[in-house]
Design goal:
Blueprint lengths: L1 E4 L1 H11 L1 H16 L11 E5 L2 E9 L3 E9 L13 E7 L5 E6 L1 H19 L6 E5 L5 H12 L3 E5 L3 H11 L6 E4 L3 H5 L4 E4 L6 E5 L9 E4 L8 E3 L1 H5 L2 E4 L2 H7 L12 E2 H5 L13 E4 L4 H18 L3 E3 L29 E2 L3
Parallel strand pairs: 1-6, 7-8, 7-10, 8-9, 10-12, 11-13, 12-16, 14-15, 14-16
Antiparallel strand pairs: 1-17, 2-3, 3-4, 4-5, 5-6, 17-18
Length: 354
Amino acid sequence: MTRYIDVNDIQRLVAATGAETFMSELARYIRADYLRWDEFDKSARVANHFPDGVIELMPAADRQLYGFKYVNGHPKNTQRNMLTVMAFGVLAEVETGYPVLLSEFTITTALRTAATSALAASVLARPDSRSMALIGNGAQSEFQALAFKAMLGIREIRVFDIDPAATEKFVRNMAQVEGLSVIRAASVREAVRGADIVTTVTADKNYATILTPDMIEPGMHINGVGGDCPGKTELHADILRAARVIVEFEPQTRVEGDIQQLPADFPVVELWRVLAGQVAGRESSAQVTVFDSVGFALEDFSALRYLREVAEAADVGTRIGLIPAPRDPKDLYQFVAGRPARAAASADASRVAA
């Protein structure tokens, strides 16, 4: 049977270790899979674009497991009191095609996005980085703050959002986090001034210019998270031209990332090469580095792999009959013929944990 992990199960798994530890462990899995880069069957996500958003499928596989994520991006959903991003994920055995895991992935996507950001910054930002500007204080912002605190030692977060309610929400959520100082800024420029790291995580689907060249200081690391589909950017093109740009999977980022503004021959470096030590991330303390992150299926694969292992270890989730299991595998008709069928995949799901 297939293990099903719902929202309540994710809450239990994260609560068992704490969000910071959970993301740090998740980053370890993501790093391990990036170091196996050549073992994976990789492709850019399949995206269907609509006037108000996008729906995507993100697949990746190694020799043992196949994973994919269904995810949307609808910036106007907040006007309907709905999440901008919603997702679920599936992990299956390559040998048989059998789905071993079906999981919520909305919360998990937020966790893995922040874990990936902090992982990239660990090899791109200056080692003495302690302050971060966080531009865009929506659903992803708290995860980014906690991941950078846990993995890079960030102690000061300067926040700005065009929606004051979003900033107030962030400040309220972070109020009980020890060792993290939150400073409200009146503008993007004020938030960015003097910051070691700048994270942009805005939601609007348009060619935006959140950061301009005059805001950028020597040695900054820019973690560009919000620009993640065609027609959606956050950084002025001249920032990219003057920086060392790191991407996840170049064929996908060329279409979806901030570098969509630049010629196809603009030089970039894939993250796996930096993690593997093949090339330097940061070449000097004064260099400006940019992680042009769009989210890549390999990171979702890592998250699914991690979820499966921690859920099995904690005995969390539900066993569900997602796939029929007839006595005779050539006789699928028995399930609609009104004859008794072996109920290995019946509607009676058994709880693995209360």
